[in-house]
Amino acid sequence: MRGSGLAAAVSQMNSGHIKGGWIMAEFPKTEEGIIQLAQTMISGMTANPDYSAPPVSVAQLQALLDEFVSAGHAQVAAYAAAEQSTQTKRTTKDALVAGMRADLNYAEYAVNGDDAKLNMIGWSGRMPPSPIPAPGQPLNFQVIGQSPGTVRLRWKRSAADGGTAAYFVIKRLGRNEGDEWTPVHTQTGVEAELTNQERGKELEYCVTAVNRSGESLPSNSVMVVL
């Protein structure tokens, strides 16, 4: 009854901006504006006998206003309670997790990591860290510049690198029969400049990638005469 009467009254007020030659005000869109207008309407119609028989009586309008204001207060209280409830839940969860972790750490040491015994409490022993694979073979090793006694080299990391390279080792091959590849320079980047190299002789270089798990296959080799 109250809802239908109020809806009818609001519908009449919003039926047009001009009615009977009078310019009608805009109905408020905010809750504060609605409350203020309702209070003004109630006090105005109570004091003025011209408004003796409104479709929604002043008493009904006051009751509807009281219900609306009470509902707003209840909403604020519920929101505050929900915020407090969320914070309480977060605090209790953190305390539970901290307690569980403490007991699990104790259990791991108490049974010396025994999986069968830890499984009884829904846990398992700590796995040793997986070793990283050796790095992949460097690619596209090339000479990018040279001068007497100096050579500049560049290469690319492996596109399918088995593991991250910690550093690279540039090696040089001796030109005599039976000579082996000898490390001559280490580099963390993918470009290096070698100085004080032997002049007037063919020199052959390659590069390998290294990490704590091992060394890659050598790259292609390049040959220069400085």
Describe the structure.
It is elongated, with a radius of gyration of 42 Å. Strands 5, 6, 8, 9 and 10 form a five-stranded antiparallel β-sheet that branches. The chain has helices at residues 2-13, 31-47, 58-110, 115-119, and strands spanning 18-19, 22-23, 139-147, 150-156, 167-173, 181-187, 191-194, 202-211, 214-215, 222-225. Helix 2 (31-47) packs antiparallel against helix 3 (58-110). The protein has four helices and ten strands. Helix content is 38%, strand content 24%. 9% of the residues are buried. With 226 residues, it is an alpha+beta fold. The protein starts with a helix and ends with a strand.
Helix-strand string: HEEHHHEEEEEEEE
* Helix/strand class: alpha+beta
Per DSSP, what share of the residues sits in E-state strands of 2 or more residues? 15-25%
- Sum up the overall morphology in one term: elongated
Q: Features of this protein?
A:
38% helix, alpha+beta, three-stranded antiparallel β-sheet, five-stranded antiparallel β-sheet, 226 residues, elongated
Topology of helices and strands:
Blueprint: H1 2-13, E1 18-19, E2 22-23, H2 31-47, H3 58-110, H4 115-119, E3 139-147, E4 150-156, E5 167-173, E6 181-187, E7 191-194, E8 202-211, E9 214-215, E10 222-225
Antiparallel strand pairs: 1-2, 3-4, 4-7, 5-6, 5-8, 8-9, 8-10
Helix pairs in contact: 2-3
